[in-house]
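Good morning,

Attaching, inline, the backbone tokens for the sequence recovery test we're adding to the shared suite. The designed sequence is right after.
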């Protein structure tokens, strides 16, 4: 007999990225203040005002044409509240992009954006589509209008961010208007917006200063008076390029003879930039020139950061001096503490700096300052620019929880992809970092080459604890590669080897290894040992903040509990796993939602099951899975429960694999069994028997044999199946076999045996609240159950079962009654929850509890939520009082 293939849990395969854990830069939410000498641009302002009636305004031009200045001035004068977001290259990750979008909107509205950043920072993070959907719903409830300005969008315009923006624009309500300022045209279906009259465009030719605007610009302060001919010459030679005109104005202040300067001011604006850089820099004091050049390595500047990089004092004073001089420096907040250089100005400064000195020490000191301020991602990026591999690696590893375990994968992958194999070979652990980052980025196919390179680079190195831990991490990664390949033997071997090699303090990797080991045990049918392994993973994961693996293990544990017919425990475990995931629409939660849906379906809570089934179907679509049929199977059951057998059969017909020979996975087997049952109900005995025989389905064979009048053969098949699943401790499957065996005995007119067996089934089922297991058998079961209505031992549950026949929906699960809250048993609380309860009683804060137990603050809060829910309280004082009442303390 062929061994039964195991269906790889989707929660195991769909390992999604962890959330970012980085501080937000509030300065990104400030529009540049109005310049001291601005030029009114009424025609462009009117076009921006008119654009409010459309969805999107696009301001698109090359660097230095005044996009940000125009939009910021308009936004400050516009009566509609505007949320400003200055984007940069770090925002190419869609989760980081949406965190800042939510933060920007929340800064101007009390309701829009609230809670979304927390969801995106969850572990794992909420999906982009879910957050955008919630954002759209929040916007739809706003009574007034809002403007969202995305400045320097070209810096963040990755494919994923473009997709997120396109979704927002397609679905946003009339309350929101989006303004995009970009050097490049964004890839967001502008043609459709244009054709539908939903796009206002301001392009480079619109932004160029005309003669009147150029004249107003040069003559507004009275220090430099130019004739119309001189203005026309400068305007023509700069082609209306605003930054070129500004640079020219700065230089003109240093020339006694404007005519001679203008005569030498020739060439395209690219050459003009180089010329004016010389003019501007040479006119500044030596210390200011040095400051400009050396601080150009920074994307954003503040006094303390500049002082740290330059190892001097007075950076804040120089920044204010540059601001007053209008020397291409842009304030980023109203207090003028943070600044940035004009992008083009910064690029030119960096170019000159690279010709004059080595820049790595500057980047290294910037990295050290960012690290001290808790800005780990910025610190890591500066370390990579400093070519500081040791520092970058230390920052990646973090303080016990590496960046890649927190979802910061793209910057790490990008940096490592830029390194030569020789560099990575000199630091073998970088190959391992590369592999982890690829795994969490959803690219497991690329791991094999990286792991081989890591193994090849290790042998010549000293066999110390660090090397052993590195080898252990390689083994963990190989174990997870084997998970993708359904190779239980390799999973077990590699995970076991990993646990023997890994440093005891390497909690994230050990948790990953333990989780893989549990999967291997589950694949091999060793459910008891797998349950122990998964329980250890949950505890270790929550303790270390590795919530993703805790959720995976919790879901797998719930599946084992369900197979052993511990439905109450399984439902609780599924709900806890969903809570760990955080986002109800994240694909990582698919298995937990599906498992819970099947249980509440069995409890005849069809409305709740339908809601969960729709969510599962959406998650399958979101993950672009072509093989996961659990959602379709559940929908088919719901259709059948509502009397729609034809539609249920049509849905099952779409299921892949039912018409192929060979062994089936668990879910395909369940789908085939359901198809046999539905075909028999429709009288198609031949098709049902053919399907049951093709796949050797014990339940289906017994049903089809019974339908053909071969009761004895049917009884032999179902009894053999029952003995087999009982030996494998598959209690739920054994109960299902008993139910069908009772029907076969009844059909063979062995009434006493049938009723005795059915009574045993009902006795076992009533403790778990099972309904649909009986009701789905239809009229024959209704007839048989009616003969047990007066049996005092099972009469109560039989009445519920008989009442359920013919019902299509129930709002609440007919679950078994649990103990009243006033008699809450001690066993309902984990040892960690009781420990936290005692610390709460002693008056310790959440932060102190986390430090005492060596867990994160978020983990403490998560435990608090569980404790409060179990005690049915809202506050810490109420929890203590309730716990004392229940004698928990």
């Amino acid at each position: 007999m062929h061994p039964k293939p195991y269906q790889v849990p989707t929660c195991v395969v769909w390992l999604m990225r962890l959330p970012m854990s980085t501080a937000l830069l509030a300065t990104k939410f400030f529009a540049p203040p109005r310049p001291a000498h601005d030029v009114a641009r009424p025609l462009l302002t009117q076009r921006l005002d008119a654009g409010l009636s459309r969805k999107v305004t696009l301001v698109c031009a090359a660097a230095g044409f005044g996009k940000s200045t125009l939009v910021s001035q308009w936004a400050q004068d516009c009566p509609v509240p505007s949320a400003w977001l200055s984007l940069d290259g770090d925002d190419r990750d869609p989760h980081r992009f949406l965190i800042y979008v939510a933060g920007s909107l929340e800064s101007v509205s009390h309701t829009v954006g609230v809670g979304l950043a927390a969801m995106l920072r969850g572990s794992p993070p909420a999906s982009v589509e879910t957050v955008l959907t919630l954002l759209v719903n929040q916007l739809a409830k706003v009574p007034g209008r809002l403007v969202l300005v995305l400045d320097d969008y070209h810096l963040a315009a990755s494919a994923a961010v473009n997709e997120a923006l396109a979704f927002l624009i397609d679905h946003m309500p009339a309350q929101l208007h989006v303004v995009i300022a970009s050097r490049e045209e964004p890839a967001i279906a502008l043609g459709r917006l244009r054709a539908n009259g939903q796009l206002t465009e301001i392009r480079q030719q619109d932004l160029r200063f005309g003669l009147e605007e150029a004249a107003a610009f040069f003559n507004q302060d009275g220090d430099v008076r130019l004739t119309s001919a001189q203005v026309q010459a400068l305007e023509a030679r700069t082609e209306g390029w605003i930054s070129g005109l500004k640079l020219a104005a700065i230089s003109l202040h240093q020339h006694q003879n404007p005519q001679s300067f203008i005569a030498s001011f020739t060439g395209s604006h690219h050459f003009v930039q180089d010329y004016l850089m010389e003019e501007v820099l040479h006119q500044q004091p030596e210390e200011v020139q040095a400051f400009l050049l050396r601080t150009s390595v920074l994307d954003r500047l503040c006094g303390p950061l500049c002082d740290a990089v330059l190892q001097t004092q007075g950076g804040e004073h120089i920044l204010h001096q540059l601001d007053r001089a209008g020397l291409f420096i842009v304030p980023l907040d109203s207090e003028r503490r943070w600044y940035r250089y004009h992008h083009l100005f910064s690029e030119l400064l960096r170019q000159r700096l690279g010709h004059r000195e080595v820049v790595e020490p500057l980047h290294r000191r910037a990295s050290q300052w960012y690290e001290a301020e808790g800005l780990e991602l910025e610190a890591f990026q500066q370390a990579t620019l400093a070519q500081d591999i040791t520092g970058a690696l230390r920052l990646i590893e973090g303080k016990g929880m590496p960046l890649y375990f927190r979802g910061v994968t793209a910057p790490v992958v990008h940096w490592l992809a830029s390194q030569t194999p020789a560099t990575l070979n000199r630091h073998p652990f970088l190959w391992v970092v590369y592999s982890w980052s690829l795994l969490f980025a959803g690219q497991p196919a690329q791991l094999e080459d990286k792991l081989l390179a890591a193994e090849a680079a290790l042998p010549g190195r000293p066999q110390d604890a660090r090397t052993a831990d590195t080898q252990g991490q390689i083994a963990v990664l190989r174990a997870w590669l084997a998970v993708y390949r359904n190779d239980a033997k390799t999973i077990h071997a590699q995970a076991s080897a990993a646990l023997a090699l890994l440093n005891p303090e390497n909690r994230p990797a050990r948790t990953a290894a333990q989780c893989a080991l549990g999967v291997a045990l589950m694949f091999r049918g060793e459910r008891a040992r797998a349950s122990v392994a998964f329980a250890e993973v949950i505890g270790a994961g929550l303790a270390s903040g590795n919530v993703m693996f805790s959720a995976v293990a919790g879901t797998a544990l719930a599946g084992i509990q369900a197979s052993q017919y511990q439905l109450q425990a399984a439902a609780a475990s599924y709900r806890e796993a969903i809570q760990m995931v955080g986002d109800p629409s994240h694909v990582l939660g698919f298995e937990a939602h599906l498992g819970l849906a099947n249980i509440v379906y069995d409890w005849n809570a069809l409305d709740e099951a339908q809601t969960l089934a729709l969510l599962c179907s959406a998650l399958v679509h979101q993950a672009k899975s072509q093989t996961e049929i659990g959602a379709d199977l559940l929908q088919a059951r719901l259709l059948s429960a509502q009397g729609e057998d034809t539609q249920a059969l049509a849905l099952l017909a779409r299921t892949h694999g039912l018409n192929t020979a060979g062994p089936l996975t668990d879910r395909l087997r369940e789908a085939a069994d359901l198809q046999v049952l539905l075909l028999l109900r429709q009288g198609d005995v031949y098709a049902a028997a053919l399907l049951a025989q093709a796949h050797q389905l014990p339940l289906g064979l017994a049903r089809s044999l019974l339908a053909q009048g071969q009761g004895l053969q049917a009884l032999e098949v179902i009894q053999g199946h029952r003995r087999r699943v009982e030996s494998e401790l598959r209690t739920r499957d054994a109960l299902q076999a008993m139910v069908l065996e009772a029907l076969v005995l009844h059909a063979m007119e062995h009434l006493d045996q049938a009723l005795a067996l059915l009574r045993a089934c009902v006795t076992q089922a009533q403790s778990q609240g099972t309904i649909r297991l009986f009701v789905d058998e239809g009229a024959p079961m209704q007839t048989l159950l009616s003969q047990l209505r007066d049996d005092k031992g099972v009469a109560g549950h039989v009445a519920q079962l008989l009442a359920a026949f013919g019902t299509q929906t129930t709002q609440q699960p007919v679950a078994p009654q649990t103990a009243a809250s006033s008699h809450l048993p001690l066993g309902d609380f984990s040892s960690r929850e009781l420990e936290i309860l005692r610390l709460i009683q002693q008056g310790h804060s959440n932060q102190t509890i986390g430090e005492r137990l060596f867990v994160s603050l978020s983990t403490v809060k998560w435990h608090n939520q569980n404790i409060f829910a179990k005690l049915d309280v809202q506050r810490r004082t109420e929890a203590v009082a309730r716990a004392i009442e229940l004698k928990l303390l």
